[in-house]
Structures are given as structure tokens and as C-alpha cells.
Amino acid sequence: MDYHVKDLALADEGLRLVEWAERDMPVLKLIKERFSREKPLKGIKIGACLHITTETANLARTLKEGGAEVFLCASNPLSTKDEVASALVKHFEIPVFAIRGEDRDTYYAHIKAVLDKEPHLTIDDGADLVSTLHRERPGQADRILGGTEETTTGVIRLRALAKDGLLKYPIIAVNDALTKHLFDNRYGTGQSTVDGILRATNRLLAGSVFVVSGFGWCGKGLAMRARGMGARVVVTEVDPLKALEAVMEGYLVMPMEKAVEIGDFFVTVTGCKGVIRKEHFLKMKDGAIVANSGHFDVEIDLKGLSEITTSVRNIRREVEEYTLVNGKRIYVLSQGRLVNLASAEGHPSAVMDMSFANQALCVEYLIKNQGNLSRDVYSVPAEIDKEIARLKLISMGIEIDTLTPEQERYLSSWEEGT
């Protein structure tokens, strides 16, 4: 089997971690059991560019149980769990091309190794797989049946591709499912980002000023968790509606140029580039801690930071100290990459259970509807979203009401009024 991982000797440890995660992924487990019986993905090759975590391993296992051949590469150089990658290769015979800390050339070589397998479907997290395919292998892209996208940044890129008329196959924006962004983005990012910051720094959040840049679903979750830890939370935004929402939630809202003067912790979750720039670093307090939980490492302008730096040293695992020309010291976590995955373990399994259940069912949907979808970015079908929510409630032992026939008639009629 063709693969490229760090060390197969790590596989047994990885297997234990994968099994531990599966215990908290009941929805995906139910889907895997059905897939094992029905084999709806039989004969399909799937190329996936995802964070190689214990939860991703269970998605890959589910797809394989459905009859698919699955090939995995990393969607971020610092998010790979080497023991998990090894376990997938050794114990589940799923080819993986990913090594934690791989350089840019290796990262893209791994993406191309997956594309070399001629997949019928793609699963992406950030759209690097799809963009590489469209940029370098347009002929191959024409033969793809469909794909899914996991995260906000990737959906933005793919919608831009579709808007330009260049998208060559249908993509389902799994990120936009209610059972994904309401839970994964909010509760997952909120908890895992705080977890990553604490593991990296061992600093106290209570009483600090914690600046959250971006008040989308990820920002909402992070602000909520930071406030719950006792921090005074400041929000920076460019969208007036989101800024107003943050105000109504009780957060301080101000431009970044003002926030940098008072912040102790800064976290970007915008999906945009250059959010914290050279002029901002110069105004920060000595000892400010800067991290990113957006998908790519472009939100913090590290190039601009280096231009005003006299020295850099690694002071803790995943913590680099930048001494600026004005004598202040700024601490950047995880090289500006996803702090929740680079410094911690990413989202809890219970959250990824719903996200990856969406992935599995959307892959099945694409196969069933091949030829019926145009070259565009689609929302997750409502019936899939509701089914995942229903299964999650069942797994939690929670029952809900159902409409009576009279209520159904009332909701479908225009005749009854006051």
C-alpha cells in the first residue's frame, strides 16, 4: 500500500485514541453500521484533505465500511496526529499521506499523491485539494462526480470559484449545515481554542482582556467560552450587524487599533487575511499573546511582524517570543496556524460526530444524485440536517414532541386566523 506517515510504530497508540473518540461519536457509528450493511459507496474512490485526527479516522472508517476506497492527506501541516495517521495505515489499511510539521512542498506533494489515485469524489477542509485540482489538473477535475467542503474558509473560496464560472463539479457546503456550524463552529471552536491557548501558555484567563477578532459562529463560541473563564471580552468586527449583535450580547466592541492597546490575548477567527498587522503589534502591551483559530495562517501578518522584530526565540512548545524594535515582547502561538489543533486536539468528538455524519451522508447523497446537480456550491439538504439532529437526540436519550394531524393541517393552511 502506498502511504507516507511518520512511523508505523505509533499505530497501536493511535488505535487506542481512535477507539476512545468513537465512544463519543454515536451518530457516525449508526451511519457506519448501516453503510456496512448496504454498501452505498461501493466502487467509489474518495480523496480527502482533512485534519488527520481521531475523529477524521472514524469518518474514514465509516466511508470504507460503505464500500469506498479512501485516500487521506492533511489540510494543515500542524494538525496531523502522527499516531492516528499510522493507525489508519496499519490497522485499517487506509492510505494516508501526512506528517505533522511537514513543509509546504511536502504538504502539496501529499495532496498530489491523493489526486494521483484518481478519486471520484473529494472531501476538503479549506479547499486546497479542490483548488490544486482546478489549477493544475483541470482535465482530471472534469471527471470528478462531486465533493464536500468542511469549513468556512473553503466554502468562501469555492463560492468564488463558482461565481467566476470555473467550478468543474458540484460541491456540498457541509460547513453551512445547521448541525455543523451551530455546534462545531460555536461549541467546538470555542472550547478547543481556549484549550489550545491554555495548553500552550498555562496563563490565567480570568481578569484578562481577551480580544476576539470576528463574530461569526466561531467568534461567538470563543467569546462565550472566554467570558465563561472570567475574561473581559472585546470583539472587533467589520460587519455592522455582527458588531451590533456582539454589543447586545454584552461584549465591548471597538476597532483593532484600539483593542491592541488594552488586550492581553488576541485570537483571530475571521477567515480573512492581515487582521493583525505590523502597526497593531507596535501598539500592543509587552507580553501580549497572539493566536489564530481561522483555517489558514494568513490572519496574523507574520511577515510584517518579522520586519519590526530584533530577535525571535522558541520559549515554550508552540510559543515563539518576538522582541520588537520598541523593546516589547509579543508571543505568537503555533506559528499563527490553527491553535486549537496545533496546540491542542481540535474539537471534542461529540461535536465532530455531527460534522462528520454530515460528510458521510452528503457523500452518499452525491452518489445517488450524480448527473442531477450542476457545477455549483449547494447547501446540505434539509432532510440530512434534520436526520442528524434526530439521531443525535436519540443518542442523548432525549425525546421531543411530534405534530398532531390537526397541527399539521393548521401549519399548511392559510384559512385559520384569529
Nutshell version of this structure?
The chain is an alpha/beta fold. Helix content is 46%, strand content 16%. The chain has 18 helices and 15 strands.
Features of the shown structure:
418 residues, Rossmann fold, 2 domains, 8-stranded mixed beta sheet
Instruction: Let me know the largest β-sheet.
Output: 8 strands, mixed
Distance from first to last alpha carbon: 69 Å
Structural class of the secondary structure composition? Answer: alpha/beta
- Estimate the strand proportion: 15-25%
Task: Walk across the major sheet and give the strand order.
Answer: 9-8-7-10-11-14-13-12
The CATH topology annotation of the largest domain reads as: Rossmann fold
CATH top level class name of the largest domain = Alpha Beta
Mean pLDDT: 96
Number of strands: 15
CATH superfamily of the largest domain: Adenosylhomocysteinase-like
Helix content: 40-55%
> Cα-atom Rg, whole angstroms?
22 Å
Oligomer: single chain
Integer tally of domains: 2
CATH architecture of the largest domain: 3-Layer(aba) Sandwich
Overall geometric form: globular
Low confidence ranges: none
EC number: 3.13.2.1
Catalytic activity: S-adenosyl-L-homocysteine + H2O = L-homocysteine + adenosine
Pathway: Amino-acid biosynthesis; L-homocysteine biosynthesis; L-homocysteine from S-adenosyl-L-homocysteine: step 1/1
Main location: cytoplasm
